[in-house]
Amino acid sequence: MNDKNQRDDMALHSPFTTHNSLVPRLRFPEFRGAGEWPERQLGDFLRESRVPGSKGDVAKKITVKLWGNGVFEKKEAVQGSANTQYYRRQAGQFIYSKLDFLNQAFGVIPPHLDSFESTVDLPCFDIDEQLNPKFLLEYVKRKDFYERLGETADGSRKARRIHAETFLSFCIALPASDEQQKIAACLSSLDTLIAAQADKLDALKTHKKGLMQQLFPREGETVPRLRFPEFREAGEWCHRTLDAFVSERNQLPEAKLPLYSLSIEDGVAPKTERYERSFLVKNEAEAYKIVQPNDFAYNPMNLRFGAIGRHSGSEPVAVSKYYNIFYCDSSVDSRFCEIYFRSPRMIAYYNDVAIGSLIEKRRVHFSDFLGFQLRFPALEEQQKIAACLSSLDTLIATQAEKLDALKTHKKGLMQQLFPGPEAVAA
């Protein structure tokens, strides 16, 4: 039986095959009278490529990042196995991860990764000219596609592999080539805008990082390289030990306080998005501590990664009792301290003093934290530095919101440009 007949036979028995003709809710004017999108099997347009390449110890490898983040060169700290066969891939081929199908691990190989290699666990496919590669990629990245079909495949949720023959039996609702091209071009233009906004965000973050390196003294120096004009003659920054102005807070909360958590990215932040319950309930106060406005919290086990933050809200909140909570007196600026405590230099200090036999469980005890000796300028200079960097944080947050808005717009547009799940399941 040849490949085409085998796929046709699979289609007759496949749970993924339907006979619907579908129409998206939003269509470009020139295609509104073009009729329905017929469903076709992916195997009608894709052919798996298995051109033998190198063995695992010498292959130039590629990987597919999760959540639709593309194809990249794989960097390995340990040399691969000489017993593993790799296959040569070409630019423009479609690739996915068998194991991470449900984690949206799809991509099209970019030109600069032409002739790189992957194993059969990352199968690659030549794409027929009737199917636009960008259209295909955006179609399969939709949750309506990969989750609905992936969940029906054999295997447990954590170890489910979507094999090539199963993938090729999945169906796709496909308009004519010119409508595919129009949709692909529209989404590509949005991707260009998203990439430009992401570059701006990265540039702002890089600028802030560079500015911080100039506004704080380097190792072995007593003054920063860059100083505001009014403080250029203010002299050296003075050594201060944290226990001179830091006090611990061990206060049990009452019920009804909002529950907060601590993350490396966001510091002290609400739990609402990650947990079903966002408020403390009766009889569980002993599992939490109060964090007052301008208090700091840090995770002893993750401080060496930067898990420390200030509560910038105006009302007290509750956090896990396993965090260390402290506050600073009026001789220092809390915003300045937060910037300082989260700086790369401080993270290096935390790693130096972390205690524990297992790397992943090394912790910084509060007594060791209090023993840190840092250089501080006068309060007025602290406030000036904090205000400068806070203004940059505002720009960064605004840029991040613009980026999120574009991503949300694209997601909403895709829901309109492709037939919805209610039509697919009909």
Brief write-up:
This protein is α+β, with helices and mostly antiparallel strands.
Question: How many strands appear in the DSSP assignment?
Answer: 22
How many discrete domains? Answer: 2
- Strand order, main sheet: write it out: 3-11-8-9
The shape is: elongated
CATH 4th-level superfamily of the largest domain: DNA methylase specificity domains
DSSP helical segment count: 10
What's the helical proportion of residues? 25-40%
Overall pLDDT confidence: 87
Q: What is the CATH architecture term of the largest domain?
A: Alpha-Beta Complex
Could you give a short account of the major beta sheet? 4 strands, antiparallel
What is the CATH class of the largest domain?
Answer: Alpha Beta
Q: Please identify the structural class as seen in this structure.
A: alpha+beta
Distance between the termini: 32 Å
Please give the radius of gyration in angstroms.
Answer: 28 Å
Contiguous low-pLDDT stretches (5 residues minimum) are 1-19
Strand content: 15-25%
CATH topology call of the largest domain:
Adenine-n6-DNA-methyltransferase TaqI, Chain A, domain 2
